[in-house]
Amino acid sequence: MPWPPHQHSTGPTIAVNDIMLMKSDEPSGNAVFRSEAGALAERFPPNFVWGVATSAYQVEGAAHEDGRGDSIWDEFCRRPGAIKDGSSGERACDHYHRIGEDVGLIASLGVNAYRFSLAWPRVQPLGAGEWNEKGFEFYDRLIDGLLERGVAPYLTLYHWDLPQALQESGGWMNRDTVGRFADYAAEVARRFGGRAASIATHNEPWVVAILGHEAGIFAPGLKSQKVAMQVSHHLLLSHGLAVQAVRAQRCTAPLGIVLNQAPIHAATDSPEDLAKARLDDGLTIRWYMDALLRGSYPEDVLEFLDEDAPQIAPGDMATIRQPLDFLGINYYTRNLSGTGAPLDPIGSGKEVTDMGWEVFPAGLSELLMRLKADYRLPPLYVTENGAAYRDRLVDGRVADADRIRYLHSHIAAMADALERGVDVRGYFVWSLLDNFEWADGYAKRFGLVFVDYATQRRTPKDSALWYRAFCSRAGTAGPRRLAINDGVGR
Ligand code: FCB
After folding, report:
1. What's the pLDDT score for residue 37?
2. CB–CB of 337/276 below 8 Å?
3. Torsion angle of alpha carbons 368, 372, 376, 378, nearest 10°?
4. What 8-state DSSP symbol labels residue 259?
């Protein structure tokens, strides 16, 4: 049976009763959108997980409160020129002080799941030693608040905010950090494992390794391929060790990892571009998938890296290849690879978002089908999908029809893959709120909910109303949790 029921019935059924969304019968909650949402919703089984996602540094703020330590992002944001608008996550969406309101907002969308990350330096300020009880209390309240509202908490342990104290001894370049991460994972699992719907170790290790250590555009801002590849190996190793450490706690939450993936298409049919696309596919997809699911790195990539290939100790690859209960895929766009000048999707007449990312929904079904063809997969979740647009709040309304179209077309692409036999179990919109978009600061708005940063007032956009109508057609009653024995290889 492709869809074993895995409903976990804690908490009441969600009542769509929040005043914030009561004005839902306005324009794009209109009949057309509602009926389209209904037809789309019918393509999914009733136990599908529908959620929204955020991450700690992007929304929490309260960067220096209640004993939180500095993270590498606090430090990176202090670097002149690092963040386009000179901002930081210091206040962000002030979510730390507004979890009551924000949990209400999540519940009012009618979703049955919320994906968020813990800030490691909030619960262990130095990344080793002392735990910070005040930090844990915050997540305790968040998790209980979600469960009370019928929303399943999907935890991520690492969404890029390494304690700065660890960076000072080499960060992810230093193999010791791997062990620190496993200790942190075990402690979180000990406290929250019984209530979490799932625990993901890392969010997008490629981004951490490459954008943080080779391109230097994300924290910690280093620029070396050799360092980046060693970091990628340590991240994967820390995933494996953390999974072992969490399982040793007899944690009942399903365990997995979240990868950013995009089909890589050659810019032209020239042999050079085809070869470049194959290599980029290796560096972004196969490097992570092969290591996690086959216990090896792709030969062609190792050959290309030559002296920049990471040092691998005996036993590392077996540690990385732990049985997974699920795999999270973040999908935004496809990538075009070629040896010529970088392709400019904006100039090419293609439809793009405010990030300049091409809108390419077919890439999502293509990617999911390809992963199914090439790997023995655990159940999949689309853990992030969404788009930034230049939203404007006018007379209390944000008319973001372009985002609705984006979400609709990508959910439809996911349905195509599902109908062709891909075991995908859930979908999370990035993001619940407009938030701190890393090096782009606050200029890029990905939220279903508009945030006025001066007042911290939240206004659901038309897309929030659309998603609520969609979720209500999809019948999202009660939190959804993957049963631990649904995964492969356990
Ligand atoms: C992903 C990140 C997420 C957000 C989106 C737009 O790569 O995981 O934090 O920044 O991109």
Report:
1. 87
2. yes
3. 40
4. E
- Quick one: three-class SS letters along 321-378? CCCCCEEEEECCCCEEECCCCCCCCCCCCCCECCCCCECCCHHHHHHHHHHHHHCCCC
* CA distance linking residue 199 with residue 243, whole number of Å: 9
Which pLDDT score is estimated for 34?
Answer: 66
Of 202, 235, 259, nearest in space to 384 by CA: 259
**Residue 263 to residue 60: CA distance in whole angstroms:** 32
Closest by CA to 377, choosing from 445, 327, 436, 305, is 327
The pair of structure tokens assigned to 302 is 């190792």
What average pLDDT does this structure show over 479-488?
54
pLDDT at 346 over 90: no
Segment 343-356 shows an average pLDDT of: 82
Q: Say what the pTM is.
A: 0.92
* pLDDT above 50 (res 11): no
Q: Catalytic residue, from 75, 204, 214, 366: name it.
A: 204
pLDDT, tens digit (0-9, with 9 covering 90-100), for 69-106: 999 999 999 999 999 999 999 999 999 999 999 999 99
Q: Mutation test of ligand 1: which of 330, 355, 383 has the most ligand atoms closer than 8 Å to its C-beta?
A: 330
Q: Is 90 a catalytic residue?
A: no
Of 60, 366, 384, 437, the catalytic one is: 384
Q: In residues, how long is the chain?
A: 490
- Angle, CA of 406, 409 and 415, to the nearest 5°: 140
